[in-house]
Each structure stands twice: as structure tokens, then as C-alpha cells.
């Protein structure tokens, strides 16, 4: 949901579109203390510069010019990606805002219409406000109009000094202001609309007579007054729209305010946000009515959540599609799809390429990647499912590993419709399990399993009677075994269990100190009609 309402059509502006919008984006941003351009730091999942470019573009001006300078390679690359229609000009030396506008105009043809000047680090400034500013400028027929705001604490800002007729007499920087002027609460945003002739003449007269030796755009306003031209001010009702971001403290404050407005908008549209203080939603996220967001939830990128779904608590979704009525609990997911009525989590990790079908389940401590999981299929617990296709109604037992990588190549596994993979099994890709097949618990599959077949691949169990009494004499374990034997009447430390092979029980000689396990059997596919071995199935 957008932070602001719809943009009025440009045609509602008497006189048509502005000739140019100049966005100043050349500053160094030292206080950000970052190797990345200040303008590329994000608010609600979008760069600050992208907000400024979108607001300017929505006015449909003849030209949008972005003045770049510090770290311009980063800024230009970003602009080429998000706004190839803009013109970029380089201010090789940062000699002030007036100089930056001079550089911008030098790259444009002669302009007959108004010129709007704004900044790349004012992310909450909307096109609505810019339209209102231009309309007010044209209605008042002034040479210069400045966007202002009235704030409780104007410390650090230039003050707007108005005359008896409400025209602007001067813009006074705080260091130059008198006590009376410092008491003024109307501040200068630095955002202007200029008559093109006033702007050209003013820029030509600028001189670096200040402490910084720079050319200030503010001085053009003073020169217009000296020439007898009228300067007006348009005060926005939303002071946040004039706020810039110069350091990470201001970045955090701005993020919090934008997020608050996004959540307010969604709650008014029918979304339940249980704890707005711990819930973060990017501007690009789409939510339907009756969605519930539980505490400590973050929805980012192109994430969408359909009606009736519940997300959270403690969940982060990036570019994830959540279907109607689904539940996603304590989960991290990216570039994934969760079907209608499906359940995910807690403690699930959905990696890119995961698609969970309707009423499917991805459960506790399950990681998926490039996994297509069919409708009503279940992957309930302790499983890695990478590069796999699991058919509808299939059930994957606890602790199953889809071994997709041999150190060189990643291969896929397919589990058929309504099949069952027993707990603690490993499927070594590439392998196919047919429809309606079973895999015995503890199996390692290296070959295909046909439809309706049972595959078992594991070592035979061997029980060594008397081993505890001989090898762990004097321990609590030995005492427990002796007591159990006495109560059951079994001699010598317990009754030996029958060997699964049907042979006599295995008894080791007294002097033998090690037990050599039987070799692993090859994968066996039990044909129809054979006795069913103990598969230790666990319904999940």
C-alpha cells in the first residue's frame, strides 16, 4: 500500500507540466560513514533516491535531471537500472547547490517553463506535494516558490521571514539569524519552483562569498527579492516530507515513520497487525483483507499474502507468495510459494525455488531448495529437501535427506504421488520413487523404486547377549541389566533376541573384545507377494 494517495493528473496543473525537475544527488554524505552512496541506503526496502525519482517522474515533466558527484558510479548504475529515462549530469567538484543547478541547466536546452529543484535524500516527499507546490506557484504568479514546514523545534534550519502580505522577505540561516528570527518555526526545505528567467539570471550572479566558498541556491532567492520579484512560500501540512537523511540515526527514524504509515494503511484496509512496533513491511509488499501479521514479522520485496493467511511470529519473508488461508510460523523464506491452506514451520527455511502445494506441509527444522511439493504432501520434520519433486499426498518421514550434490553436480530426485519415505532415509540423487511406493525407514537409496514397490536398504540388526555383563561390569547399566534378567528369569544377562536371518543367535567367545558389524546389504526391492519386512514406518 502506498504511503500517500493517488497522484493528481498532471493535466490539472494550469499551464501544463513543468519543464524540468532537477534532483540534487552529488553530496558526499560524510555523516553516513559508508562505502555506499548515502542515496542508495534504503527506506522500507527502496533506496532513498528511488523515492525522489518516482516523485519527480509522476509529474511527467519534460526533463528529469539527476546531478551526481560523489560515488557517482554507484548512483549512475542504480539509475540505469531503476530509471533509464532520467538524464544524469556530473558535478565533478561539489561547489554547492547553486553550482549543481548550473551544471544541470547546462545539459538542457533552453527552458520555457518552470523548473523544480529537489533532493535525492528526502524520501517522504510525494508527488502530491510537488503538484500542490507548483499549482500554488502558478496561482500566485511568483518568480520563486519555496516549500516550507512548521516544526516544533526548528534548530539547525533556515528560517522563513514573511512580510505583511505573506510574501517571503528572506530565508535566513540559523547562524545568521537574530533572536527574533530564531523564534520563527517555519523552516526552509530547500525545495523550490523557479521561473526559468529568474533562475538563469540568479545563477549567473552567484558568488562564493560565504565561509565554505560555495555557490548557494538560497542566494538566488535573495537576488530575486533584490530585483523586485515576488517570492512565495507553500507550507506543507506534513513536516516529514521536508526531512532529509544525513546519518544512520536519521535513517532509522525515517524508516520507522515510513513503516508506521505503511502499517496504518494496511490496518485500515483490513489487515490485523498484532504488534506494529515489531512488524516491518516494505512499501512493495501486497496484503489482502483478513491477513494477520503476528509479532516480529518482516515482509520484504515483492512478498504477497492472500486473504485469511497468518504470518508469524518471528518470520521473515522476502519475495514470497503466501496463499489464501495459509499459515507460516517462525520461518525464513525467500523466492518461494506457499499454497492455499498450507502450513509452514515452526523453524522452517524456504530457499529459492520452493513451491508448496495447496494444504501441503513443511514442518519443523525442514530446509527446502528448488523443491516442488505437491498438494497435501507432507514434509513434517528434520528434513533437507533440495532439488526434489514430491508428488501430491506423499509423506516424507522424519530425518530424511535428499542428497542432491556429489561435489560437482546437483541432481534431482522425484517422489511419486501418495508415496511414503520412511524416517532416517537418504535418497542419493538422481533417483525416482514411483507413485504409491514405500521406502523402508533407515534406507539409503541409490536406485529407482517402481510404482507400488517397497525398497529397503540397511544393515541387519545384531543383538550380542551378555555383552554388558562382560564389558561394563560394575556400572549402573550392568546393574539394571542384571535386575531385568533376574525379574524375567533369563540367565546370563538377558535373553538373546532372534537373529532376523533366522539363524541361531550370535554368541561371541568370552575373549573377543570387538564386534564386527555385518556388511550393509544392497538396496532390495521387495516384489509383490513377498513377506513384508519390518520397515519401522512412522506416520507423520
UniProtKB/TrEMBL annotation:
The UniProt record lists the keyword 4Fe-4S: no
Cofactor note: Binds 1 Mg(2+) ion per subunit.
Cofactor(s) it depends on: Mg(2+)
Compositional bias (Low complexity): 481-496
UniProt region (N-acetyltransferase), positions on chain: 270-540
Superkingdom of the organism of origin: Bacteria
Domain FHA residues, every copy: 309-371
Catalytic activity: alpha-D-glucosamine 1-phosphate + acetyl-CoA = N-acetyl-alpha-D-glucosamine 1-phosphate + CoA + H(+); N-acetyl-alpha-D-glucosamine 1-phosphate + UTP + H(+) = UDP-N-acetyl-alpha-D-glucosamine + diphosphate
Active site: 381
Record-listed acetyl-CoA binding positions: 398, 404-405, 423, 441, 458
CDD domains: GT2_GlmU_N_bac, LbH_GlmU_C
Annotated UDP-N-acetyl-alpha-D-glucosamine binding sites: 24-27, 38, 91, 96-97, 119-121, 158, 173, 188, 246, 351, 369, 384, 395
Segments of this protein annotated with the region Linker: 249-269
Broad enzyme group: transferase
Region (Pyrophosphorylase) location: 1-248
Compartments in which it is found: Cytoplasm
The protein's annotated pathway: Nucleotide-sugar biosynthesis; UDP-N-acetyl-alpha-D-glucosamine biosynthesis; UDP-N-acetyl-alpha-D-glucosamine from N-acetyl-alpha-D-glucosamine 1-phosphate: step 1/1; Nucleotide-sugar biosynthesis; UDP-N-acetyl-alpha-D-glucosamine biosynthesis; N-acetyl-alpha-D-glucosamine 1-phosphate from alpha-D-glucosamine 6-phosphate (route II): step 2/2; Bacterial outer membrane biogenesis; LPS lipid A biosynthesis
EC numbers, comma separated: 2.7.7.23, 2.3.1.157
Keywords per UniProt: Acyltransferase, Cell shape, Cell wall biogenesis/degradation, Cytoplasm, Magnesium, Metal-binding, Multifunctional enzyme, Nucleotidyltransferase, Peptidoglycan synthesis, Repeat, Transferase
NCBIfam families: glmU, PRK14352.1
Recorded family membership: In the N-terminal section; belongs to the N-acetylglucosamine-1-phosphate uridyltransferase family.
Protein purpose: Catalyzes the last two sequential reactions in the de novo biosynthetic pathway for UDP-N-acetylglucosamine (UDP-GlcNAc). The C-terminal domain catalyzes the transfer of acetyl group from acetyl coenzyme A to glucosamine-1-phosphate (GlcN-1-P) to produce N-acetylglucosamine-1-phosphate (GlcNAc-1-P), which is converted into UDP-GlcNAc by the transfer of uridine 5-monophosphate (from uridine 5-triphosphate), a reaction catalyzed by the N-terminal domain.
Oligomeric and partner information: Homotrimer.
Record-given protein name: Bifunctional protein GlmU
